[in-house]
Amino acid sequence: MKKVFVAGHRGMVGSAIVRQLEKRDDVQLVLRTRSQLNLSNQQAVADFFNTHDIDEVYLAAAKVGGIVANNTYPADFIYENLMIQCNIIHSAHKAGVNKLLFLGSSCIYPKLAEQPMLESALLTGTLEPTNEPYAVAKIAGIKLCESYSRQHQRDYRSVMPTNLYGPHDNFHPENSHVIPALLRRFHEAKLNNDPKVVAWGSGKPMREFLHVDDMAAASIHVMELEPEIYEANTEPMLSHINVGTGVDCTIKELVETVARVTGFKGEIEFDTTKPDGAPRKLMDVSRLKSLGWEYSFSLEQGLEDAYEWFLQNQHDFRQA
């Protein structure tokens, strides 16, 4: 039985990975809360790896936030993420852990990257300014994995998810991402019998969304690929793999689907005075498909699942 450490097991992605690994009879999970193990503390992380015979690591721990948080606390985002990644990857190596999977973010790609975004777009242009410190930290995580694999022959891999949503998402009314924000807004509008909901922008930009359970399944799939298969589908200086659906939709289509899932019957209005953002953000997932993995949740199925989780846990958000 292999001992698997999931760093960040209480987050949206980490908890999804744990839910899937818990079903396995060949895995012994090793989990630590923030109060039990401060991942920003180099000595604490080193001691943890030296006292546990870990076989594999899923590095899903990160300091995350929306545009406002990234703009307000850029030093926190770059420092904490760099420390978490450096401590875990280096300590894992020193303790002899040969298999590690690092979870990045699609924000690593240039602001004006060609669509759909190929893995080769990395470091070919300027990043989106609002989350550049976070993106730089994530790029460093990819390069750490590449470098330890090259210099020390470790099997350290990286996956880059598109926009994620699902159980354990952040449904805060101001700090959440688009899907949880819309689910909550339409749910409350339905309860209040509001005649209409106003959505920002024109509704024309296109975005790609992936249910977090699909992300977890893809992460485990990539982690468990035979080394020769993984290496044959990557390159020494381009070893990360995009994870997404390869399918996008307009924000208008997303909003209408959320309204349908939540049962909101009123009018939907688009405030075209508000900014749209980038016209399109889509991942090229042909590399992942060639490795035998595809998503299972349609957008509507995924939204229904996320909304059901919100309904069961909304008491946790009432004071938010």
UniProtKB/TrEMBL annotation:
<feature type="binding site">
    <location>
        <position position="177"/>
    </location>
    <ligand>
        <name>NADP(+)</name>
    </ligand>
</feature>
<comment type="function">
    <text>Catalyzes the two-step NADP-dependent conversion of GDP-4-dehydro-6-deoxy-D-mannose to GDP-fucose, involving an epimerase and a reductase reaction.</text>
</comment>
<feature type="binding site">
    <location>
        <position position="200"/>
    </location>
    <ligand>
        <name>substrate</name>
    </ligand>
</feature>
<dbReference type="InterPro" id="IPR028614">
    <property type="entry name" value="GDP_fucose/colitose_synth"/>
</dbReference>
<feature type="active site" description="Proton donor/acceptor">
    <location>
        <position position="134"/>
    </location>
</feature>
<feature type="binding site">
    <location>
        <begin position="8"/>
        <end position="14"/>
    </location>
    <ligand>
        <name>NADP(+)</name>
    </ligand>
</feature>
<dbReference type="InterPro" id="IPR001509">
    <property type="entry name" value="Epimerase_deHydtase"/>
</dbReference>
<feature type="site" description="Important for catalytic activity">
    <location>
        <position position="105"/>
    </location>
</feature>
<comment type="pathway">
    <text>Nucleotide-sugar biosynthesis; GDP-L-fucose biosynthesis via de novo pathway; GDP-L-fucose from GDP-alpha-D-mannose: step 2/2.</text>
</comment>
<comment type="similarity">
    <text>Belongs to the NAD(P)-dependent epimerase/dehydratase family. Fucose synthase subfamily.</text>
</comment>
<feature type="binding site">
    <location>
        <position position="207"/>
    </location>
    <ligand>
        <name>substrate</name>
    </ligand>
</feature>
<feature type="binding site">
    <location>
        <position position="138"/>
    </location>
    <ligand>
        <name>NADP(+)</name>
    </ligand>
</feature>
<feature type="domain" description="NAD-dependent epimerase/dehydratase">
    <location>
        <begin position="4"/>
        <end position="228"/>
    </location>
</feature>
<feature type="binding site">
    <location>
        <begin position="103"/>
        <end position="106"/>
    </location>
    <ligand>
        <name>NADP(+)</name>
    </ligand>
</feature>
<dbReference type="InterPro" id="IPR036291">
    <property type="entry name" value="NAD(P)-bd_dom_sf"/>
</dbReference>
<feature type="binding site">
    <location>
        <begin position="161"/>
        <end position="164"/>
    </location>
    <ligand>
        <name>NADP(+)</name>
    </ligand>
</feature>
<dbReference type="Pfam" id="PF01370">
    <property type="entry name" value="Epimerase"/>
</dbReference>
<keyword id="KW-0413">Isomerase</keyword>
<feature type="site" description="Important for catalytic activity">
    <location>
        <position position="107"/>
    </location>
</feature>
<keyword id="KW-0521">NADP</keyword>
<protein>
    <recommendedName>
        <fullName>GDP-L-fucose synthase</fullName>
        <ecNumber>1.1.1.271</ecNumber>
    </recommendedName>
</protein>
<feature type="binding site">
    <location>
        <position position="276"/>
    </location>
    <ligand>
        <name>substrate</name>
    </ligand>
</feature>
<feature type="binding site">
    <location>
        <position position="185"/>
    </location>
    <ligand>
        <name>substrate</name>
    </ligand>
</feature>
<keyword id="KW-0560">Oxidoreductase</keyword>
<keyword id="KW-0511">Multifunctional enzyme</keyword>
